[in-house]
Amino acid sequence: MSVAETLTAARPRSGRTVSFLFLAIAITLIVATPFLPNYYVRVINSLLIYILLGIGLNIVIGYAGLLDLGFVAFYAVGAYSYALLASPQLDLHWPFLLILLVAACLGAATGILLGIPVLRLRGDYLAIVTLGFGEIIRIIINNMDWLTGGPKGIPRLDKASILGIQVARPIDFFWLLLVTVLVVGMLVWRLERSILGKAWAAIREDQDAARGIGINTTNAKLAAFATSATIGSIAGAIFAASQRFVSPESFTLQESVLIVLMIVIGGIGNILGIVAGAAILMLLPEVLREFAEWRILFLGLLMIFLIIVRPAGIVPRSFGPDKLIRRLFGK
Question: Is the dihedral of CA 292, 293, 295, 300 positive or negative?
Fold first, then answer.
């Protein structure tokens, strides 16, 4: 057997080993989390929230090929939806699931409102407009003291409860976020493989050609913005419920850039890549907390190294969830 044939035969075996390793790490983390101190559970909860945000933004950036730098606006819409409907601010105390539905609807509506003016924009121009949109939302929240509390934010939010079961401890939010991430991830993965997902892929490759073969690019883009914004708003509502406090400081441009970096480093258009990118950008600073003066420098050098060595991301688009499943259970 030649060297090339040997390497070809060994590749599926090594791929299956990597798949089993990925699955083993995920299962170990899930099983071990309930036994960790609250601080570490909160860190993992933050990781899950950013994975959820990454999945949402990936629809626009990874699937449809539209650069959105204002995604944090939808995150803020969801958070302030919960803050206003479950606090003494407006003296409203709605159920958590109802607020989650309202936040999702408001997020979708906001996404469509953003999508309509930018339908004809591409590339850098689209990025600038979405960036401005994110900053406009933050400034509005920061200046509407009578409604949002302004820079002081909204404290004393109600404790969340689902069907009479109170969700207040960090471990409670861990299970809620884990289920949400798994459900949303599965739905988005199926959406990518649907007719709408194929339309997004065509738009990503060439918008003019997609329009030429009969794809309604307007509706497809609006669907991408609306779906992405819905997921971002759901993440924001859960974030507000877990913190029981919201303020404009949590929704700056830096947050949008961080989510974009997770997608770029992990792998554009790949849900598994988002998990890897979020794990690096969220967990590595905690591991390097003892080296407070150097950890940001080290993290920046690592990001540059990964972008040079793995320009397609840690987990490229070709290695998606379907390929992971085939390698785990297929031949």
Answer: positive
Q: Does 294 map to a domain?
A: yes
Whole-angstrom distance, CA of residue 194 vs CA of residue 131:
29
Nearest CA-CA partner of 258 in 237, 284, 234: 284
Residue 66: which residues within 8 A CB-CB, separation 6 or more? Answer: 60, 122, 126, 221, 224, 225
CA angle (192 as vertex; 186, 198 as ends), nearest 5: 165
Burial of 208 (0-12, 13-18, 19+ CB in 10 A): exposed
Q: What is the CATH number of the domain that holds 135?
A: 1.10.3470
- Tell me the CA distances in angstroms from 25 to 16, 29, 275, one per residue in order: 14, 6, 12
Crossing angle for the helix pair 72-85 and 217-243, to the nearest 10 degrees: 50
Beta-bridge mates of residue 154: 246
What mean pLDDT comes out for the span 27-37?
Answer: 86
Q: For residue 49, tell me if it sits in a domain.
A: yes
The rounded mean pLDDT for the chain is: 86
Domain span holding position 211: 11-329
Cα separations (Å) of 159 from 86, 155, 223, 240, 313?
8, 12, 33, 10, 39
> How many domains does the structure of the chain reveal?
1
CA distances from 223 to 44, 50, 57, 170, 262 (A): 30, 22, 13, 33, 23
**For position 310, what pLDDT does the model report?**
82
Residue 1 lies in a domain: no
Q: Please state the pTM of the whole predicted model.
A: 0.90
- For residues 8 and 14, give the distance between their C-alpha atoms in angstroms, rounded to a whole number: 10
In a domain, 158, yes or no: yes
Average the pLDDT over 296-301 and give the result.
78
